[in-house]
Please model this.
Amino acid sequence: MRFSDITSIPGYNGKNYINLNRKEVPYAKRFAETFGFLADYVIDAIHYTRKIGFLSRPYKDGSLGYPFLPGTLHLGHKPSEEQQQWMIGIRKDLFSRTFVLTDAAIDRLGSFDASRGDRISVGQALKLIGVWVEHPHLSTDKTRYYGSPYDGSQQPTDDVYTSDAGNSGSGSGSGDGGNSGSAGTGTSDGVDQSGNAQQGDGNGAPPPPPPPPPPADPRDWQSDGQQRSTMTLMELIQHARQCADMTEDGPIISTRTVKGITNWLEAGLPLIEVLDRITQSWEPETIAHVWQQVPGISDLVERRRNKQPVTPHGDWTAVERIAEGKGITPNAYWPHVLDCLHMPEQRVWIFGPTGSGKTYGMEQLCECMQWDMSLYACGEGTENYDLIGGIGPQGWQDGPLLDAYENGKTLILDEFSKMSAETTGALNAFLNGNMRITTSRPGNPVAHRHANFRVVICDNSAGNGTDGNYVVNEQSADTVGRFEHLGLQVFAGYDEPVERAILGKWADC
Model:
């Protein structure tokens, strides 16, 4: 099943379809076919039918009118009892929301006893189309991002939370509806179908004020259970800058570096894992010296000496299953690549030895994610006009970079460092993801960035020039910094499990 099965449903213009895995997509499609509409709250209910589901950011940060998530839930950690109760409350709300049945929906349900205008809860509706809903009074005790995948193999049970509002419902609002567009007029719990708090309780009383945001804790970026620093994050960054300045040829910790740190912290990573991402090309001793005040940095340094990065996989098990179903063996670093491409910058620099699967793997990744891809092989003679475009015998021709920028493609720049620093430096505006760029194109000089534009660099180096293995050009610090400082460089080494599978019985000889 493809996401296009969801995005092509008339009237659905939400964004949460991306949360569905391949076994949940058919249920969302079946819901739309049965009840005549689809909304993000229905998709969320399908995604969270199993108690292993973790609620996404709009639920955690109060954007949808719910209370803020108590505390912080980092990757690799289990939710606290308070956080579990918070998840239970939202899951119950999703399943208890009601909408109006249309004649068409009643006809499709066949033997279901209902009349036009009756209301039905989402929990009941999911049960009718064969979705097994675990009891909403239960919540996950699994580690974040490591729950079992939804298998859809269970039969519907009676453990479905149903609204006490009955068929009449209460409250008012527009909401999403059936084929006539009139259904979905509210719920009994003070939250409308779009996930926003209703204005009042139906009796003229004003709604309660939203809860205030939790007080900022300058140390809540640290991993639970580890030794905690007495310094604020800003103090740690300032100390790291002083150490870097005192180091000969030390790294630059720029404002862009700080932005990279905050991007990853907001994505749920503790600082020690963030530093693993933004120091991909650093020597272990440099990491130890510059970030000496960060608790746990010695573990990172030791792992880096042994070429073992500490960053865990993200929640990309669905993509890995798709890849394996196509006969593709996903290497260990691909979840990291996907994490980078889902950062706001939407770019990544993959570097590593020849034959480690950088370019081929990226092509397969684009296929799995259904991204429109363009591959360009760079060389020593590549010039700006080859990538951006220029005037030829038949007039102006867009280059692959300008085409991807305007039409939302994922551009793979293979062998990037074979180009000179002068050539690559002229591409910085595109690599930076500027919203509009002026070109020399006659008649239409201003290019506008498409929301799906992504840039992937595949290279043998991290921009540091020729070494003992590869003859490549050193790139400018400004170009490299657009990736390294944001933690968007990923080392792609040879994958031992893949090589063992290739060697078979000879692996241990």
Observations:
- Residues 6 and 29 are 6 Å apart (CA to CA).
- The radius of gyration is 26 Å.
